[in-house]
Amino acid sequence: MTTRAGFVALIGEPNAGKSTLLNRMVGAKVSIVTHKVQTTRARIRGVALEGESQIVFVDTPGLFKPRRRLDRAMVAAAWGGAADADVVVLLIEAHRGLTEGVAAILERLPEIGRGRPVALAINKIDRVKAETLLALSAKLNEAYAFDETFMISAEKGYGVDDLRRFLAGSLPEGPWLYPEDQIADLPMRMIAAEMTREKLTLRLHQELPYQLTVETENWEERKDGTARIDQVVYVAREGHKGIVLGHKGETVKAVGQAARVEIEEFLGRRVHLFLQVKVRENWLEESERYSEMGLDFRDGDG
């Protein structure tokens, strides 16, 4: 029996639904899903099985116009992930159509797509009429000769199985890259930190867009089968600390409870989660923070 394995890069603008699609394909919540843009920093990989194929997804940060060092490193990681992949999927939102951002991605696709299959996935199809979808698909295929076009809803699951089958068949023949029961190659400490960061992002909305990061400082396995997890929320300014803590510590407490529930669901066992909030003024300029997020500090130069 022939096995196949390889890497699939999901590229697109921020908030196009890449993380939702990855989680749907893998069947578990591996990458952060939130309504705020640019939340996927690390190149998180999820592993999906389809027949005899093992599909390893590179969930790249959304492609946007970079302003700060972190932004530049994220965009460099996104294009790097696409250039290293066996198959590329451009994901766009049906109701937003051919935006400036999508046009900029299409310009770079000939260079990235050379020698590898590139599929177009139009997401959130339930938001527009059929004729609008067909016109959009025609316009995009005129701009770039995609190998296949898929109409999907990552959230509801429409069309996702067809896309997964296409990807499985497009991968190179070869042995599987990961053990069968492994769904992500990020260490659990980092996945837990990302889950907490998602809860903070959802809770704080516009108040603290990207000026915070979460690190798992300590992970202790206990004899009773539970785990104690200590995490630190780093903020860039003293004023941000109060926002994260909230009145009488209510915000951080609610965030901790929500994150604990999700980490427990993911692990399938009980955890004790403890959060601390600390100010680290220059964390956006510290190279080790970038390594932890799977980004290259040097890509932020210039």
TrEMBL record:
Residues 12-19 are annotated as: G1. It is found in: Cytoplasm; Cell membrane. Residues 152-154 are annotated as: G5. GO terms for biological process: ribosomal small subunit assembly. Residues 123-126 are annotated as: G4. GTP binds at residues 12-19, 59-63, 123-126. Signal peptide: none annotated. Residues 59-62 are annotated as: G3. PROSITE patterns: G_ERA, KH_TYPE_2. Residues 4-173 form the Era-type G domain. Its main location: cytoplasm. Residues 204-281 form the KH type-2 domain. The keyword Membrane applies. An essential GTPase that binds both GDP and GTP, with rapid nucleotide exchange. Plays a role in 16S rRNA processing and 30S ribosomal subunit biogenesis and possibly also in cell cycle regulation and energy metabolism. HAMAP family: GTPase_Era (MF_00367). PANTHER family: GTPASE ERA (PTHR42698), GTPASE ERA, MITOCHONDRIAL (PTHR42698:SF1). Belongs to the TRAFAC class TrmE-Era-EngA-EngB-Septin-like GTPase superfamily. Era GTPase family. This is GTPase Era. It comes from Roseivivax sediminis. The gene is era.
